[in-house]
Design a protein that fits this description.
This protein is α/β, with parallel strands linked by helices and 473 residues long. The protein contains 14 helices and 18 strands. The two termini are 39 Å apart. It binds zinc ion.
Length: 473
């Protein structure tokens, strides 16, 4: 089976430019009825989906037509937690086997050498990997700003890549001398943090439907900023109507720190600070207690589940089944590349399914539920209703995987489940905001080979600056 394709490759979607995806073996809509349409089509005008259905429901001509016989079409995956700069420090020898706090204190001295150029290339590296794995929207929790780095570096890279982006203005203000975890050399003054956060919101935040760039206020974690900064951040976010994000209840040391320093559980701490609501999502919550579970459900507070990272750092198994049963909004995150060390979103859905089963039995999470967390769940977590499903009026964010591959062979009876149970490999097409950013398996917006070369050069430079044992290739 071949993919028939008509029309020129997309440069950028003109407002009225039309794109038809037709003849797909199955289109997974994640719409209200959770329809899975056999022999499905999706018709797109500009950046918006106009119709989804069988051949009879959808116009059969367009400026560009892609025949998808032998393929599965899903809503673009939504990554709710990442630290893209960490792609420069994957598999660092001394950080391969430690738990969260040991892992962090090994990496901080390396990260202090990061530069704006490194940040741009690392962001592109993460985004190429994400896009090839079906991701169309990503957040990035950027909390380290040495050597003139600004959040603008990440936003510029995202714009070049064509990725829908929630840029989290992270921060750290409590260094070792004040009882925190990071070295003093990489923490910022709280007034500077708040002023810069205000600046990036005013410069970049787009609150409109279909926004490609949103800013999020995101102190790194309760153990790296003061209670005052947490409160001031919440007030700032609400002043502008932007979301809030941080790490919470990640492992036992994190709980210990909270009890020792605040005399409160993480859930009680964030409740008292105003860090709950539909505009807040917390990463991990592996150790969220019953009180926190009820609190998050009642307030529509979101959780970003990062199963690979939780396994990599031995943090534990987040109670996702119970969270879903309680009505908590759960999204999926790959987390930073120093604790995953991969940005494979469809692979992460598989990890979520497997890890819940290790903890809570084989019925804890189905393949379709894992896929729903990775799409609709992510949209709710990011406080959006314009992405995460394929339906008229939704933004045209779509991932297409080939079914007739060796790793999927033998699973034709249920290609939707196979996407999570098997290893589907990279997408053939990835469409973001109507733009084809992966076309016939190739990234169209940047030169992938050149990004890899720059990334490896920067990574080696970082290793050398940090006196880390490194082998040049
Ligand atoms: Zn993280």
């Amino acid at each position: 089976m071949t993919t028939q394709d008509s029309g020129p490759p997309d440069v950028f979607p003109a407002e009225n430019r039309t794109l038809l995806l037709k003849n797909a073996d199955v289109v997974v809509t994640m719409d209200k009825e959770r329809r899975e349409i056999r022999n499905g089509s999706v018709y797109i005008e500009g950046n918006t989906i106009v119709s989804v259905g069988t051949e009879a429901d959808v116009p059969q001509t367009a400026d560009r037509v892609i025949d998808l016989e032998g393929h599965i079409v899903i809503p673009g995956l939504i990554n709710t937690h990442h630290h893209m700069f960490q792609t420069l420090t994957r598999a660092v020898p001394n950080a391969q086997d430690g738990e969260l706090f040991k892992w962090l204190t090994t990496l901080y001295p390396i990260w202090k050498h990061l530069t704006p150029e490194m940040m741009g290339v690392a962001t592109k590296t993460a985004m190429i990997e994400l896009m090839l794995s079906g991701c169309t929207t990503s957040s990035d929790h950027q909390y380290i700003y040495p050597n003139g780095i600004k959040l603008d570096d990440s936003i510029e890279a995202a714009r070049e890549m064509g990725m829908r982006f929630h840029a989290c203005r992270g921060s750290m203000s409590v260094g070792v001398s004040k009882g925190g975890l990071p070295p003093d050399s990489i923490v910022e003054d709280e007034d500077v943090i708040l002023a810069d956060t205000r600046r990036v919101i005013e410069t970049y935040h787009d609150s409109s439907r279909g926004a490609m760039t949103r800013i999020v206020v995101a102190p790194c974690s309760p153990f790296s900023v003061t209670e005052k900064l947490m409160r001031d951040s919440a007030a700032l976010a609400r002043e502008y109507g932007v979301s809030l994000h941080t790490h919470l209840a990640e492992n036992d040391s994190d709980i210990e720190y909270s009890l020792k320093n605040f005399n409160k559980t993480p859930a009680k701490y964030v409740e008292d600070l105003g860090w709950v609501g539909h505009d807040v999502w917390h990463a991990h919550c592996v150790k969220l207690d019953d009180y926190g579970m009820k609190l998050f459900a009642r307030t529509n507070t979101g959780v970003s589940h990062c199963p690979s990272s939780n396994m990599r750092l031995g943090s534990g198994i987040a109670p996702i089944r119970r969270m879903l049963d309680s009505g908590i909004h759960v999204g999926l995150g790959v987390d930073g590349s120093a604790s995953n060390d991969s940005s494979d979103m469809i692979g992460e859905a598989r990890q979520a399914l497997l890890l819940q089963r290790v903890g809570f039995g084989p019925e804890a999470l189905t393949a379709r539920q894992a896929l729903e967390i990775a799409t609709l769940g992510g949209a709710k977590t990011l406080n959006r209703d314009d992405i995460g499903a394929l339906a008229p009026g939704m933004m045209a964010d779509i991932a297409v995987f080939r079914l007739n591959t060796i790793s999927m062979a033998g699973a034709n009876h249920d290609p939707v489940a196979a996407l999570v149970f098997c290893n589907p490999g990279n997408v053939v097409y990835n469409i973001i905001n109507g733009r084809v950013v992966v076309d016939n398996s190739k990234i169209t917006t940047v030169n992938e080979t050149s990004v890899i070369e720059q990334q490896n050069a920067f990574s080696y430079q970082l290793a050398t600056l940090s006196n880390m044992t490194a082998v040049p290739y």
